[in-house]
Amino acid sequence: MASNTYGKLFAVTTFGESHGPAIGCVVDGCPPGLEIDAADFRHDLERRATGKSRHTSARHESDEVEILSGVYEGRSTGTPIALLIRNTDARSRDYAKIAEQFRPGHADYTYWHKYGIRDPRGGGRSSARETTMRVAAGVIARKWLAQRHGIRIQGFLSQLGDIRPASMDLSVVEDNPFFWPDAAQVPQLEAYMDALRKSGDSVGARVDVWADGVPPGWGEPIYGKLDGELAGALMSINAVKGVEIGVGFGAVTQKGSEHRDQLGPDGFASNHAGGILGGISSGQRVTCSVAFKPTSSLRLPVDSLDIYGNTVEVVTTGRHDPCVGIRATPICEAMVAAVLMDQALRHRAQCGDVEVPAIPTPTAIPG
Ligand code: EPS
């Protein structure tokens, strides 16, 4: 079965290719009455966009959203919301030379083997361009989650190559092109990226996302666990190679006495679980960490094959990100928002009538 849709009750379908006439999405299941305006999308789309700093691809897309359906007089009607963004700055000639070649590390090879045909222009459907529509759909989810449940979702870059934040200040994340939580390190990141760009190479990165205000109870054991859905949704982003919830792989070396998050009247004493126990939100901060691989479109020559089986030397020209993780923070936030909104509606459907005897709900303790 083709899979271009995420979610059951808040279902987002994306379509379009990097160099096609347009990209778009259909958001089905948004509750009626939510105020939605084309201007709402601008902020997050700009945060994700290329061409905003010298450290990302130089392609300049205006990313103007057209709302085609599902909104009447500024409010969602409960019918499918169709959003469209026209591609205006594609430069397909950059891909002419590699149209029949496989870039090592790229989806070229597997798309070819799966479908027997592919759109080579700009990576087609496998391009990071597709993530634009995830962010657009995420705007709707974030707005509903904030208004209905007071949920805040904030991401940041938590590693660039082997550089890690020396301190953590979320208030500076939006003030630099890296979404980096330590303002003092920004010059170091700039210098690192300038040298990397000059060398023609690329590097991986890690993005963390925190969701605050998620009430206890969201997530559907067993096959719709909140952590399972988050992992699947985040892993579906281009170039993602790993997802951790809470301490993630750090749990391997912990003892049980250390890992368990002690409960008391004032809340949990720690948050190794990342706000999820048994696949259900605990009321603590939900924490996710996402690993991005280094971009595979490089101008550095590499041996490969073409579609006829000939050995070729691949050199990728054009406009590419030396670190795709740099602008992935809004994409990860959007996927977390889509998962939470879907789970909120699913929880409401099955357990909306459940009344839990009043016991104190521990509040979130960061960590
Ligand atoms: C991308 C290659 C570049 C990026 C693109 C992602 O563009 P093109 O497809 O024209 O070569 O600019 O990113 C975007 C256009 C975007 O909006 O994110 C790639 O290979 O993934």
Structure, briefly:
By secondary structure, the protein is α+β, with helices and mostly antiparallel strands.
Set down the secondary structure blueprint.
Elements lengths: L4 E2 L4 E6 L5 E7 L13 H7 L17 E4 L1 E2 L2 E2 L4 E6 L21 H8 L15 H19 L2 E9 L25 H14 L5 E8 L13 H10 L4 E6 L10 H4 L3 E2 L2 E2 L7 E2 L2 E2 L4 E7 L9 E4 L5 E4 L14 H23 L16
Antiparallel strand pairs: 1-2, 2-3, 3-7, 4-7, 5-6, 8-9, 9-15, 10-15, 11-12, 13-14, 16-17
Helix pairs in contact: 3-7, 5-7
Bound molecules: ligand EPS.
The site of ligand EPS has 18 residues, from loops.
Structural class: alpha+beta
Overall tally of domains: 1
Query: How many E strands?
Result: 17
Write out the strand line-up for the largest beta sheet, numbering strands in chain order: 1-2-3-7-4
Report the portion of residues in β strands.
15-25%
Radius of gyration: 21 Å
Helix content estimate? 10-25%
Low-confidence stretches: none
SS summary, helix count? 7
Provide the succession of SSEs. Answer: EEEHEEEEHHEHEHEHEEEEEEEH
CATH first level: which class?
A: Alpha Beta
Please supply descriptive tags for the structure shown above.
aromatic amino acid biosynthesis; flavoprotein; 17 strands; 367 residues; lyase; single chain; globular; chorismate synthase activity; Chorismate_synth; alpha+beta; binds ligand EPS; Chorismate synthase, AroC fold; four-stranded antiparallel beta sheet
